[in-house]
Specification:
about 300 residues; mainly alpha; about 80% helix; two-stranded antiparallel ribbon; 11 helices; 2 strands
């Protein structure tokens, strides 16, 4: 006759059974992922990787291919393609009602590539080619300064995404604002500025001489501002400034006809001159968050003083 197991033995068996079931469930979870959202997230990463690759191609003086001749413009559009994929993966996951921690981690890893590495590298290469004369005269200090700005931007994007992963909560009710500038907005700002600068540097054939000269000066000014803009976007990503989620806060649900007309006008302007409208819109979004933070601080000080 066998002895009955003690309560302590039974508890140990139950604990071992729970551990086995947990390990099996984790392995099954890793083996199975939700296909469409994950494919959109990987498309985001591929677009970012392609943007970095195209931006690093030899210039038109070395290669006559179309990619090399327009590498910065194509890299900027690829970053916008990554933004589209980044918007799609979350929508697909919420539409299928399958938001998982795996998808969130994969999304942040893809964002580091598309909105951290690619814009930082694009800024470095643009400034290296645009300031070739300056770099030739001061080869060490200036080139290393631009490299440091791009590296700092990439580090800020990684820190911002890590902070988002730690504090993120599932559900769109928690996504009406962001703490710090979102990394897609920062990457989109750099890409939009590059598109505007490249369009100014390449005026339409047959333009008046004074107009071409004005565009050339504006292009040089945009190129000078680019590293400062990249640095500012990087620091704003790790700031405590709140930025609104425009779609969730202002576009979803029932809205007035006036807001519909405003959105329609913006869409038409983007179709007509997207290089300038997107860049100026991104600048407005960044300044909006900063000015809102300043207004809140002044309001809090006035309330404390009264």
């Amino acid at each position: 006759m066998t002895a009955r197991p003690s309560p302590q033995d039974r508890e140990e068996r139950r604990e071992r059974r729970r551990l086995r079931m947990r390990r099996h469930g984790r392995r099954a979870y890793i083996r199975s992922v939700y296909f469409l959202p994950s494919m959109a997230t990987l498309g985001n990463a591929v677009c970012g990787f392609a943007a970095a690759y195209v931006a690093a191609l030899p210039g038109a003086a070395v290669s006559t291919s179309f990619l090399a001749a327009h590498r910065f413009v194509i890299a900027a559009y690829l970053i916008f393609g990554a933004m589209v994929c980044d918007a799609l993966d979350g929508r697909l996951a919420r539409f299928a009602r399958h938001t998982t921690d795996f998808g969130g981690q994969l999304d942040s890893l893809a964002d580091v590539i598309s909105f951290g590495v690619a814009p930082g590298l694009l800024c470095i290469l643009m400034c290296r080619d645009g300031f070739a004369e300056v770099v030739r005269h001061v080869p060490l200090k200036f080139e290393y300064l631009i490299w440091a700005i791009g590296a700092l931007y990439m580090c800020c994007a990684a820190v911002r995404l890590a902070r988002f992963n730690v504090s993120n909560e599932h559900g769109e009710q928690h996504h009406f604002s962001f703490l710090g500038l979102p990394s897609p907005a920062a990457g989109g700002m750099v890409a939009a500025w590059v598109l505007m600068q490249q369009d100014l540097a390449d005026p339409a054939p047959g333009s008046w001489a004074w107009l071409a000269a004005t565009f050339s000066r504006l292009s040089t000014a945009c190129l000078i501002i680019l590293p400062l803009l990249t640095l500012g976007c990087g620091l704003l990503m790790v700031s405590q400034i709140r930025y609104p989620h425009l779609v969730n806060r202002y576009l979803k649900g029932r809205r007035s006809i006036g807001r519909l007309i405003v959105v329609l006008i913006l869409v038409l302007l983007i179709i007509v001159a997207h290089q300038y409208v997107i860049a100026l819109g991104m600048v407005g979004y960044i300044l909006w968050g900063a000015m809102s933070a300043v207004a809140r601080m002044r309001r809090a000080r006035s309330l404390a003083a009264s």
